[in-house]
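Closing statement on the S-adenosylmethionine sub-project.
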Amino acid sequence: MSKQYIYIVQSSKEIISCKIGITNDLERRLNEYNSMTGKSKETVYQYLFTCEVSDMKQIENDIKDEFRRLREEKSREMYFYNKDLFEDYVKFIKSHKMFTKEIFIKTDVQKEVVKIVKREKPTLKERGLTFKKVMQKAKQVKNDEFYTRYEDVEKEINMYDAEIWKDKTVFCNCDDAIGDSEDKNNINTSAFALYFIKNFEKLGLKKLICTHYAGTVDLFNSGPKGYVYTYIYTKTRTEEFKDSPKGYTGSFDDPISLKILNEEADIVCTNPPFSRSIDYWKILNDSGKKFIIISNSAIVLTESYIPYFKDNKVWAGFNEVYWFLTPKRELTRATGYWFTNIPIKDRPNYKRLKIMPLKKIPEKHKEYDDSKMLLVNNGYIPSDYKKPFAVSSNPILNGLLEKGYKLLQDKRYTPYINGEECYARALVQKI
Ligand SMILES: C[S@@+](CC[C@H](N)C(=O)[O-])C[C@H]1O[C@@H](n2cnc3c(N)ncnc32)[C@H](O)[C@@H]1O
C-alpha cells in the first residue's frame, strides 16, 4: 500500500497563508509546485512541515473542521499563516490518532520586513531613539493599521435589536471620523464613523463621538495631534464639530478620551489597536459601558482575556471578520471576531454546537489526555458528563457558555498525549 502524507507548504509570494495538503508522493508534489509558476515566475514554494500518516483523508477532514475559521476559501485548502497558527496546525496534526511520524519541520520563522520611509528629520540619536526602538514602533503601527470594512460593521450592527441604540451616545474611540481635506470619497474615514453618521436617524441616536489618534505620524516624532469629532443630527439641525484640545493625543487612554468614555458614552464601538489590546479591554471593561468591538478571535484562549469570558463580562458577537483594509486600502486577511457585553438572543451559531450524551459522540472526536482529561473536538459537547473537559475556542465563540456550561480557570489548558504537547484549549464543565 502506498504511503500517505500531510504537508504544509507556502508560497514565497503569499506569506500570510499556507496550504495544508495530502499526497502519496511527497517529493513529486514539491517538484510540481516548483514548476507551477502561476502568476509569477519568481514564486517559490517551500515545505514548512511534512509527516507520514495512516489516514490522510481523515486528518484532512478533521483539519477542515477544526480550523474552519482559519480557512481562506471553502474550495481550497489554504489557511491563514503566522508563527503561532503554524504551531497550532502542527500540534493538531501531531496529536491526531492517525499521525505516524514527522518527516520535516521548518524551524526558522519568517521575519517580518518593515519598510521605514526616509524623511528629512533629525537623526535617531538627536531624537533619543535607537534603531531597535523605531523598528518596534514601526512593527506595532503596521499591526495596528488594519481598517474595518463598512460591510462588516453593517453586518454585525444589523444583528442587534434596534432598540439598544435609541437616544444613546455612541463612542468610537479609535476612529478617524473625517479623513482629511483631500479625502473626497471618505476613503480615510473610519467605517464605524461612516456607519453611525449614515444611520444616525434610523437608529435614533443622540450623539456620535469619535476620537482620532494621530499615532502613525508620531513614528518619526513629528508630534501627534488628536481630535474629538462630535456629530448630532435632528430633523431641525445638524451639528458637527472637530476639536483638537491643546496637548490632546487622541489616545483612548488620554484623560480627555477617558472623560468622554466615563461621562458621555453609552455604547462603545470600534476596532482598537492590536498592540494596545490588553489595556484597551481593561479600560473598557472597567468603565462599565456597553460595547461592540473587534479583536482577534484567538483572545478566547489568551490568558489576559480569559477571565472576562469566565466571569461572563464579555462574549462573542455574531460574526467573524476575515477581511480588513490596509492604509493603501488593499484587502488583507486577519482572524478578527466581534466581542460584546450586549445580551444576544437566539445566537445563530448555537446550531454549530453538537450537544449530546457522551456515548453518542463519535470515537474519533473524543479522547483522553495523559492526565485523563476528556478532550472533545469538532463542536461535540457531552450533555451528561459531570467532570471538567477541554474544548477548543470554537464552542466558546459559538455560545457554549450560554448553554449551561462554565469556564473553569483563568488560564488555558494544554493537554499532553503520550508526552506530546497538543494545541491549547479551555477547560469547561456543565453547571
Ligand atoms: C485596527 S485599527 C482600526 C481603525 C478603525 N477603528 C477601524 O476599525 O477601521 C486601530 C487604530 O487605532 C489607532 N491607534 C493606535 N494606538 C492608539 C491609541 N493609543 N488610542 C487610539 N487609537 C490608537 C491606530 O493608529 C489604528 O488606526
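Residues 144-148, 174-175, 190-192, 213, 215-216, 251-252, 270-273, 276 surround S-adenosylmethionine (CB under 6 Å). With this model delivered, the sub-project is considered complete and its resources will be redirected to Aim 3.
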